[in-house]
C-alpha cells in the first residue's frame, strides 16, 4: 500500500507541473519590485488570518469589531486583488506594447477567457478567477527552490483550492438540473465536470494524500489505473474509461459537492457514449473492446453509485436494481453468463429510451446469439421475451 500510494502524490507527471517554469517566470520579476512586495505582504496576512480562523483554541474577544472568519475573508480578498493588480500592471502592458513573450501572452489569454464568463456565468467566473490567481501565486512560491513551501501557506492553499473546486462542481450540478434543451450545451457541462475532477486529481489530491493517506486509501487502485491515461493520444474508448475512473474517485472525494443525481447523470452519459462507440465500431475486434468497456461502466455504475442510493424516484427502479444485483451475484464466476445479463439489462434500458437505438439493438441481439443467451426459434427469441416482458423479432439478425 505504501509503495502504491507514492504514485499518488508524485506530481512530476502532471500537466500543471510541466508548466511550472512558465508560471514561475510570470511572478519572479516582481519579487524585486513593488508588486512582489505587496503580494508577499498580503500572502503573509491571509495565511495568518487563516491560521487564526482555523485554530480552535483561540478565544474570540467579544469587543472585537470583526470575527476571525470576517478577518480571513477580508485579507483573502486583498491578497487576490494584489495578484490581480500585478496581471493588469505588468502582463497587460507588456502585451499591449508588444514586448510580451509567448507564455505571457498565453497567461493573459487565459485570464481574459475566465473574465469573459462574467456576463453569462457569474458564479463560475468568480470561482474560476479565484482558482487561477491562487494557482499563479502558489506556483511562484513553489518555484523558489531555495526553501520549501511554508506548511501554513500550503495548508491555506489546499483548503481554499479544495473549496473552489467543490464550488465549481456544485455550480455545474445546478446547471445540469436546469432544463437545457441544446445537446451541445449539456454536453459542454458534462465536459466541464470531468475536466474539473481531473484537474483536482492532478493538482490537489496528491497534496491531500500526502497529509492523510489513510483517508484516500480506497481510491488508490482507481488512481493507479488513471495514471495510465496520462500520456499519449487517447482513443474514444480510452477517454470514456478515464472519465469513468475519475467519476468513481469523485464518489469519495466529492461526496456532497457532486450530488448523487448529478453523478448518476454523468454515468448515464458515459454509458450512452459507450453505446455509440459500439454502434460505430469499425470491426469486430474494436466492437469487442467497446463491449468490455460498456460492461465495466455498468458494473462501476451499479457498485459505486446505485448500491449507495437511498432514495429512488420510482419503486420499480429499485426493484429492478435489486433483481439485477441478485442475478449478478449468481454469475460472478461465469463471465459469459455475466455478459449475457449485462446486455439484456441494457437492452431493457434502451427500449425505454426516446433515442433511436435500432442499430444497437441489432448488434445486441447478434451478440446474445453468439453468447448462447438467445435462440432463433421461428423468428423470435423466447428467452429474451421473458426477460424484457415483450415480444422481440429476430428478423433483423438473419442474413
Short description:
This protein has helices spanning 2-8, 15-18, 20-27, 34-54, 68-96, 102-115, 122-142, 151-177, 183-203, 205-211, 220-227, 236-253, 260-279, 284-304, 315-329, 335-350, 358-371, 382-388. With 399 residues, it is mainly alpha-helical.
Structural summary, described in words:
The protein has a domain of 177 residues. The protein is 70% helix and 0% strand. The longest helix has 29 residues.
- Average the pLDDT over all residues and give the rounded result: 82
Which structural class best describes the helix and strand composition?
A: mainly alpha
Oligomer: single chain
Written as H for each helix and E for each strand, in order along the chain, the element string is HHHHHHHHHHHHHHHHHH
Major beta-sheet overview: none
Number of E-state strands: 0
Low-confidence stretches: 1-20, 27-32, 394-399
Tell me the fraction of residues in β-strands, as a range: under 5%
Q: What characteristic shape results from the CA principal axes?
A: elongated
The count of helical stretches stands at 18
Distance between the termini: 53 Å
What is the radius of gyration computed over CA atoms, rounded to a whole number of angstroms? Answer: 26 Å
Tell me the helix content: 55-70%
Amino acid at each position: 500500500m505504501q509503495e502504491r500510494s507514492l504514485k499518488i502524490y508524485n506530481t512530476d507527471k502532471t500537466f500543471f507541473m510541466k508548466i511550472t517554469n512558465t508560471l514561475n517566470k510570470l511572478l519572479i520579476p516582481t519579487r524585486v519590485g513593488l508588486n512582489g512586495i505587496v503580494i508577499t505582504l498580503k500572502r503573509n496576512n491571509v495565511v495568518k488570518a487563516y491560521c487564526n480562523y482555523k485554530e480552535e483554541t483561540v478565544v474570540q474577544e467579544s469587543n472585537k469589531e470583526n470575527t476571525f472568519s470576517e478577518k480571513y475573508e477580508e485579507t483573502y480578498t486583498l491578497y487576490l486583488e494584489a495578484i490581480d493588480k500585478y496581471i493588469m500592471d505588468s502582463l497587460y502592458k507588456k502585451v499591449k506594447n508588444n514586448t510580451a513573450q509567448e507564455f505571457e501572452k498565453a497567461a493573459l489569454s487565459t485570464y481574459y477567457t475566465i473574465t469573459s464568463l462574467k456576463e453569462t456565468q457569474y458564479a463560475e467566473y468568480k470561482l474560476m478567477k479565484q482558482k487561477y490567481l491562487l494557482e499563479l501565486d502558489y506556483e511562484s512560491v513553489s518555484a523558489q527552490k531555495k526553501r520549501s513551501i511554508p506548511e501554513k501557506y500550503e495548508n491555506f492553499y489546499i483548503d481554499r483550492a479544495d473549496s473552489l473546486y467543490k464550488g465549481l462542481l456544485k455550480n455545474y450540478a445546478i446547471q445540469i438540473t436546469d432544463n437545457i434543451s441544446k445537446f451541445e450545451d449539456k454536453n459542454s457541462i458534462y465536459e466541464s465536470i470531468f475536466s474539473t475532477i481531473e484537474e483536482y486529481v492532478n493538482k490537489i489530491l496528491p497534496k491531500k494524500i500526502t497529509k492523510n493517506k489513510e483517508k484516500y486509501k480506497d481510491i488508490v487502485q482507481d488512481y493507479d489505473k488513471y495514471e495510465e491515461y496520462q500520456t499519449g493520444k487517447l482513443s474514444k474508448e480510452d477517454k470514456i474509461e478515464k472519465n469513468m475512473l475519475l467519476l468513481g474517485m469523485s464518489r469519495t472525494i466529492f461526496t456532497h459537492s457532486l450530488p448523487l443525481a448529478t453523478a448518476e447523470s454523468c454515468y448515464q452519459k458515459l454509458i450512452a457514449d459507450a453505446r455509440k462507440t459500439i454502434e460505430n465500431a469499425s470491426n469486430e475486434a474494436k466492437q469487442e473492446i467497446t463491449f468490455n468497456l460498456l460492461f465495466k461502466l455498468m458494473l462501476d455504475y451499479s457498485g459505486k453509485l446505485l448500491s449507495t442510493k437511498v432514495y429512488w424516484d420510482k419503486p420499480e427502479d429499485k426493484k429492478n436494481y435489486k433483481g439485477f444485483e441478485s442475478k449478478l451475484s449468481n454469475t460472478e464466476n461465469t463471465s459469459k453468463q455475466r455478459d449475457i445479463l449485462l446486455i439484456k439489462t441494457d437492452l431493457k434500458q434502451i427500449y425505454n429510451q426516446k433515442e433511436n437505438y435500432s442499430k444497437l439493438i441489432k448488434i445486441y441481439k447478434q451478440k446474445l446469439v453468439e453468447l448462447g443467451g438467445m435462440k432463433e426459434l421461428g423468428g423470435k427469441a423466447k428467452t429474451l421475451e421473458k426477460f424484457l416482458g415483450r415480444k422481440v423479432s429476430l428478423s433483423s439478425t438473419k442474413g
